[in-house]
């Protein structure tokens, strides 16, 4: 069975290699939009489903994994910063506070799907303006939700963490392995469609 990661993230690629020695990568060509009425905590899982479903088309016999990670603080969702000002604002919001990192994951195989979200709480030390300015001058913040990478220099800001560290990096590998094992225990055989018999007194006309 082929496995496809529906993500271009090098961090997720590295983490998924802890579960599978070989897999393919296919980046979903979608606009990452969510309904306004959707609670922010559900947005990562919603986007993960979109990504996995998109890549599953034409790859029904492969196990497709879609993922999305978001940082949430004070009810606000922080995605990737678009520029240095965005990154600066995010760092000031996170400074000295706790926030949530939520990764949504969705599995697609043979027309069936399963999704879940993993939540990790992260607390930052209070950050000085000098620390923030030095950090946002590096390339590190700009391809990461919330504008920091805990696996790199962003680790210098973290006072504490409650939950899965790898979830903050981008993929909750321990839980994901267990979710995959449970999901793949299903019966994925396609049901044979039974031909409906014609009612008595009705003649079938062959074309």
Structural class: alpha/beta
Number of helices: 6
Number of strands: 7
Binned, the helix content reads: 25-40%
Shape: elongated
Radius of gyration: 22 Å
Gap between N and C termini, in Å? 40 Å
Q: Please outline the major beta sheet.
A: 7 strands, mixed
Low-confidence stretches: 197-207
Strand portion, in percent? 15-25%
The pLDDT mean sits at 90
Sequence of secondary-structure elements: EHEHEEHEEHEHH
What's the structural blueprint in terms of helices and strands?
Blueprint: E1 3-6, H1 10-16, E2 24-25, H2 43-56, E3 63-73, E4 76-78, H3 84-94, E5 98-109, E6 112-124, H4 129-136, E7 158-162, H5 165-169, H6 173-183
Parallel strand pairs: 1-2, 1-3
Antiparallel strand pairs: 3-4, 3-5, 5-6, 6-7
Structural features, described:
The protein has 207 residues and is of the alpha/beta class. The protein is built from 6 helices and 7 strands. The protein has helices at residues 10-16, 43-56, 84-94, 129-136, 165-169, 173-183; strands at 3-6, 24-25, 63-73, 76-78, 98-109, 112-124, 158-162. Strands 1, 2, 3, 4, 5, 6 and 7 form a 7-stranded mixed sheet that branches. The longest helix is centred in the first third of the chain and has 14 residues, at 43-56. The chain is elongated. The relative contact order is 0.16. Residues 197-207 have low confidence and may be disordered.
């Amino acid at each position: 069975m082929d496995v496809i990661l529906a993500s271009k993230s090098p961090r997720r690629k590295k983490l998924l290699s802890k579960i599978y020695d070989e897999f393919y990568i296919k980046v979903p060509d979608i606009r990452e939009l969510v309904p306004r009425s959707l609670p922010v905590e559900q947005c990562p899982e919603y986007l993960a489903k979109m990504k996995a479903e998109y890549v599953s088309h034409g790859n029904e016999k492969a196990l497709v994994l879609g993922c999305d990670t978001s940082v949430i603080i004070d009810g606000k969702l922080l995605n990737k910063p678009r520029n240095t000002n965005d990154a600066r604002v995010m760092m000031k919001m996170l400074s000295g506070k706790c926030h949530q990192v939520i990764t949504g994951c969705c599995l697609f195989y043979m027309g069936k799907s399963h999704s879940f979200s993993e939540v990790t709480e992260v607390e930052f030390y209070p950050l000085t303006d000098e620390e923030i300015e030095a950090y946002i001058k590096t390339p590190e913040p700009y391809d990461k939700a919330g504008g920091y990478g805990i696996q790199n220099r962003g680790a210098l800001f973290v006072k504490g963490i409650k939950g899965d560290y790898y979830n903050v990096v981008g993929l909750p590998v321990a839980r994901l392995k267990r979710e995959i094992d449970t999901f793949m225990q299903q019966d994925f055989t396609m049901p044979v469609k039974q031909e409906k018999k014609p009612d008595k007194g009705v003649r079938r006309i062959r074309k």
